[in-house]
Specification:
Blueprint: H1 8-11, H2 14-22, E1 30-34, H3 40-47, E2 52-57, H4 60-69, E3 74-77, E4 90-96, H5 107-117, E5 118-129, H6 133-138, H7 151-160, E6 164-171, H8 174-188, H9 197-210, E7 217-223
Parallel strand pairs: 1-2, 1-4, 2-3, 4-5
Antiparallel strand pairs: 5-7, 6-7
Length: about 220
């Protein structure tokens, strides 16, 4: 089996590609990525000629690796609960697959921070795991506290902090589910890539980039 590779080239999936597409045109924009991980969003943003992009990540080993992968981006240690940036600065703030990982009941605090650094009229784009009974029980880490959200919950959270939701979409299907189930044991126990990776990546591309309905991931776009 092929050894697990954390490089951007190996980790990009249909979900990542669609997440960037969901943001729209980023050319000339000042962007913040909350939870930048290994820098996949920054890579896309730099290639799309954004004005600047800052990625924040609490795990130092991840943002050091990301800086090597995307030297034209800026990476800092930080989190959704304490963003190292001044008020009203960014045109676009993104937070993909992060809100479910911050401490429980701190979602409003994170959204307040995002609103603080977003300029008036700026855009916030986010995604998270969809709260649907079948996807919940099929998520191995749901049993250990991995949270899923539905549209009503997210609209309420955003509305409470003064955001205006402009767009909601659902993506991801069986390929995404199978990949997620296989990833945990193969990455953390066997330290190798999942079996049938090429086939599953093709399915994920279809589910996120071609199919317009899904049940794995919910995307929301809102303005300040």
């Amino acid at each position: 089996m092929k050894k697990f590779n954390s490089g951007i080239g190996e980790r990009l999936t249909g979900r990542h590609k669609y997440s960037f597409k969901f943001c729209g045109n980023v050319k000339g924009k000042t962007i913040l990525d909350v939870g930048s991980s290994y820098g996949w969003f920054e890579k896309f943003a730099v290639e799309a000629e954004c004005k600047s992009v800052l990625g924040i990540e609490p795990e130092e080993n991840l943002f050091y690796a990301a800086q090597k992968e995307v030297p034209k981006a800026i990476f800092k240690k930080g989190s959704a609960l304490k963003i190292p940036a001044k008020d009203n600065f960014f045109d676009l703030v993104v937070m993909f697959d992060v809100i479910e990982h911050i401490p429980r009941k701190t979602e409003s605090k994170a959204l307040k921070e995002i609103k603080r650094v977003l300029r008036p009229g700026g855009t916030f784009a986010m995604s998270t795991s969809l709260n649907f009974w079948f996807t919940n029980i099929m998520d191995p880490i749901w049993y250990f506290g991995h949270r899923h959200y539905n549209e009503k919950q997210l609209r309420n959270l955003l509305g409470k902090e003064g955001f205006k939701v402009k767009k909601v979409e659902y993506r991801g299907g069986w390929g995404e589910m199978a990949s997620a189930i296989l990833l945990y044991p193969f990455k953390w126990i066997f330290h190798c890539e999942v079996p049938f990776k090429k086939y599953l990546e093709q399915k994920r591309d279809e589910e996120y980039l071609v199919n317009k309905k899904g049940f794995m991931t919910i995307y929301l776009k809102a303005t300040k």
